[in-house]
Each structure stands twice: as C-alpha cells, then as structure tokens.
Predict the structure.
Amino acid sequence: MIETPCRNPALGKSLKIIGFLMIVLGAAGIPVFGSALDGLGWIVAIVIMMLGVAIYLYASRLGSVSAGDLLAKDKRAPIVFVRSFQDEQDDYSLTGYNKSLKSMDTDALSNNNVWGPGVQLQFNTLLESIGPYIAIGRPGENLAGIGAARVYVSDDDWQDKILEYFHRSQMVIMRAGKTQGLRWELEQLVEMQKPQSILLILPHTQADYQEFRQWANDVLPKPLPADKPDARFLLFRQDWTPQPLTPQRFLFNTLEPFFKQNQIERKDIRLSYFLKYDSWLNYLVGISVLIAAGLGLYFIAQLF
C-alpha cells in the first residue's frame, strides 16, 4: 500500500486567502504601524507578513490535486517535472534559500523567483495553459510538493511510471542535480531523441553546476558549457546543442525560445498568468492593494 499525503482542496483554498490577506496586511502595516509599540510595530508587521507567506505555501501543498486526478480530467499531453528529492527538501533549509538568493544576484533575475517553491508556483500557473504539469512525489512526505501534481509509486515501480510519463509528454523539465535517479532519467530522455522538448533548470552555484556537468556530459550527445552560464534555464536544439536562456525581467520572456521551439506562442498562455506574474499590471495591482490596505489600517488605527 503506497502512502499518499494529506490533501484538502477546500481547506487549502481558504487558507490561501487567509495567507494572502496576512501578506498584504503585514506589508501595508509596516509604514502604518512602524512607530507603534515603542518603534517595534514594523517587526510585528513583518512577522504577520512572513506568517502569511508560510500559510500560503502550506495551503498550496494542502490544496494540491493528485497527478492521477489531473490526468483523468485533462487529456492533453503532460509536462513532466523531474528532480532530486534531496534538492527539493533542501529548498526549505537556510542553506538552500541562501543559495537561491546568490543565484538571483549572479543571474540578474529581477522578477523571476529563483527559490525552488517560488519557481514551482509560477511554473504551475504558467504551464496550466499548455497541459497538466505532473511529477512523481517523494515517498513518505506528509504534504505534496508545491507546483506539479504528484503521483506516489513504490521504489519498484517508479522507473516504469516515469517512462510512461516521458512517452506521453510534450515537454520535460529537469532540475539539474547529482543523483543516480536523475542520471537514469536523462539517459532515457536521450534515447527518446526529443531534445527540443527538454528544459534544464540549472543549479544555483558553480560547484553544483560542475558536479552536474561532470556526469551529464557522459550522457548527453553534446557537452554542456564549461562554466556555469549566467542563466537559470537551458534548452537543447534539434542536434542537442545546449543553449542557455538569457534572463529577462519576466519568466515567460525568458522561456519564450523554449516554448517557440515547441510550437507554443504567447497567445496560447492564459491572460490570468500574465496578470498574476508577467506584466507591469501586476505591479500596479499589487501597489494598489497595498495602498488600499494601508489606508484601511490607518483609518482603523484612528478609531482607537
């Protein structure tokens, strides 16, 4: 019997709203109540905001759907996400978070969230316009990971399941790592000879990149760049030539060459994605919400 994580879509949706409101109220409360509580009001506001982020991330995991349910409902060819389970867990450590911040500075990514869970939240919203975004879940986890819908299989069955997904897929997104499981998955992708459908998420650091490159070059028909590119993503041309994707302000713009070689155009992406992540309008909406919340808090404060 395969253990599956706790899921509650209704509660997850409610907690998401609560988390979002806490983020907005905390951010708006920094300038409004910054001088309160003997000048410590801004600390309280930041704590509220950070708790809101934690609740929002928890709710995203609690409210997730299973890959089986998603595939039953959405018959389009899936986008498959593969990665090292250890790398995914490390995202929630201080070391992992610090690595992502360094990557953001190095790669000059302004609006592209490079922290693992943040990337996956954005990918999930972006890719739902294209097809079901799925992955194999980490055995034993109490909550499903953020982003791709998970399926849970035994250690004896995971290779058969991922091969099934690879053959059904329209695209595969691989987060570069250093495990034997990833090596086996890359070997299968090379055998399938669909290089243009593969997108690599590169490691944050030069050291991690070199570890990945060392074994990946034994598998790939053409070698990866000798040094870590100033990029977060890398595609392959039809002849397996690797091409780093120049970072742009918005994620879709960064990935547009990859999407184009898979016959996906900007018009194929839902407007809701651009409003949420990839347009100047989301800045205006965000600022407007913060101003409105700040004014609301200010007038409430005047009543007491």
The radius of gyration is 21 Å.
